[in-house]
Specification:
The protein is an alpha+beta fold and about 290 residues long. The protein folds into two domains: about 20-175, Jelly Rolls (Sandwich); about 180-280, Orthogonal Bundle (Arc Repressor Mutant, subunit A). About 45% of the residues lie in helices and about 15% in strands. Strands 1, 2, 3, 4, 5 and 6 form a six-stranded antiparallel sheet that branches. A hairpin with a 3-residue loop joins strand 2 and strand 3 (about 60-65). Helix 6 packs across helix 7 (about 200-205), helix 9 crosses helix 12 (about 275-280) and helix 10 (about 245-255) packs across helix 11. It is globular and about 50 Å long. The two termini are about 15 Å apart.
Length: about 290
């Protein structure tokens, strides 16, 4: 799971680890700058509806009302100044979308940002109320007993990201070459559900395992192995929530031939076994701390 570093919190009433989570967030008190950049294993789309916040993410910029911020998974960022901002915050698991071919294209805007496009998209004023309505609807659906159905969740996520994409000018703003860490994270997201080791990733990146792990840890705070495990655990949680597959089958689907090893890693990451996690979150509200952005 993501490191517990200081940042702006995403309040997720359904508990930590769901494939998609959304909430309303406001900061009306004084907020000191985050002491260091944070990274997390989920992609974030933040829609500012009031106030401003200055963010460090491959440079500094001030997000204003009517603008959307895109944070790809693994992207270091921190809030350096906040002036009574109000946000809709949407987070989702990129590995889970890639596992579902019908949803994989939703990552396209985040890939543009990874490749150098602006992380901020200004929404035309006539479209802002509709975009906020989509956030409200997704939140209301997620708060239903048992949570939103995967189909409804995917449909609303698609509409939200489509609104952002239609407002963006990716071609005019992109052009920066992808770096080693960006390429590594992209490769892990697309292959972590297969048999994959840090040595395999290093070979694909044409680097030594030691060099790659050092570069990735320095940039994101986690090792290559930790990113592999994180992606697998994300997809495992999605399957625990939205399928009736037994734990041994889920273990195999996320890259573990040994179910016992999978259960041990899952317990280490979440504090409970996969079966206990499913029982807690599939029909309950859960009690884990919310994630941070």
């Amino acid at each position: 799971m993501a490191e517990r570093q200081r940042g702006i919190r995403i309040e997720d009433a359904r508990g930590k680890g769901r494939p998609v989570f959304v909430s309303r967030w406001a900061q009306h008190k004084a907020h000191e700058p985050a002491p260091r950049a944070v990274t997390h294993d989920y992609a974030v789309l933040g829609y500012c509806t009031a106030g401003t916040t200055t963010i460090e993410q491959r440079g500094h910029f001030t997000l204003q009302a009517g603008e959307v911020l895109l944070i790809p998974a693994g992207e270091p960022h921190r809030h350096v100044d906040v002036q009574r901002p109000e946000f809709w915050m949407l987070g989702f698991c990129p590995v889970c979308l890639l596992a579902d071919e019908a949803s994989a294209e939703l990552l396209t805007p985040f890939e543009h940002v990874r490749s150098g496009a602006s992380a901020v998209v200004k929404i035309p004023e006539p479209r802002r109320a509709f975009l906020e309505h989509l956030f409200v609807e997704l939140r209301d659906e997620s708060e239903r007993d048992g949570g939103a159905s995967p189909a409804v969740e995917r449909s609303l996520l698609t509409l939200i990201i489509s609104e952002v994409s239609r407002a963006a000018d990716w071609q005019a703003r992109s052009g920066a070459a992808d770096g080693l860490v960006t390429e590594t994270l992209r490769y892990i997201e697309r292959h972590c559900l297969e048999p994959l080791s840090p040595r395999d990733v290093a070979a694909a990146m044409h680097r030594s395992p030691a060099h790659l792990t050092t570069a990735v840890r320095r940039a994101t705070g986690r090792s290559v192995q930790e990113w592999i495990i994180s992606g697998r655990m994300s997809e495992a949680r999605r399957r625990l929530l939205h399928s009736d597959e037994i734990v041994a089958v889920i273990a195999e689907r996320v890259g573990y031939a040994d179910a016992t090893h999978f259960i041990r890693l899952f317990r280490r990451a979440h504090g409970v076994t996969p079966t206990a996690w499913r029982a807690r979150y599939r029909h309950g509200t859960g009690g884990e701390d919310p994630p941070e952005a």
